[in-house]
Design a protein that fits this description.
Pfam families: PIG-L. This is PIG-L family deacetylase. Helices cover about 40% and strands about 15% of the residues. The chain is built from seven helices and seven strands; from the N terminus they run E-H-E-H-E-H-E-H-E-E-H-H-E-H. Strand 1, helix 1 and strand 2 form a beta-alpha-beta unit. The chain is globular and about 60 Å long. The relative contact order is 0.18. Bound molecules: zinc ion. Zinc ion binds next to strand 1.
Length: about 230
Amino acid sequence: MKIMAIGGHAGDMDLTAGAALAGAVLEGHEVVLFHLTPGEKGHPTLSAQDYAKQKMDEARAFADIIGGRARFLEYGDGELPVNDHVKFQVADVIREEKPQVIITHWKNSIHKDHANTHLIVEDAVFYAEIKAFERSLPPHGVSRIYYADNWEDPFDYEPDVYVGIGDQAYDRWLKGAQQYAYARGETGFQFIEYYKALMTVRGLPHGFPRAEAFARPTWSRQVRLTSLAAKG
Ligand SMILES: [Zn+2]
């Protein structure tokens, strides 16, 4: 199986879903982290240009450590548009990579790039699937979409899927996350400490020492039963 995580900034998917992605690689699955912008405007001392280059190197290092691949679109931090051009760019990458599972941002965020990524991915999945949208590659349907548990995307977020994180996946995630300067706290928020604690909070009530949580689209939460006594 192939899983593609699509984030507004390099690091978003790595920190929120990266341990589950590391676990998927350990189970033999293929993982792609697709960053629509580097997220290069938040560093207190580095120029956006220098920090963009550094963020892309950090993203590649993270992907290497967990055993996945990183790829990028060429948009600037805070400048990710919502239009058919970018939606078809993402749709073309979906047709090229052919993931069965996509992970992306929840719709309500304090960051416009996150909210825009949600909207872009929603339509890109549709454009990738429908044959009548003629592109250079054949259509590809994605079977599952998950929204990651990001402290910056909290409004009305209700996870309903909990993925247990084993020790090896956790170790790889932590080593990968430490490659990101911002995750280590250089931009003022202790990202790694937050996500380490969140894994415990998401795991313990669901029978795991650690877990990452995800929300599914409303349509995929619907359960079909032949009777009230049938197994769901
Ligand atoms: Zn972000």
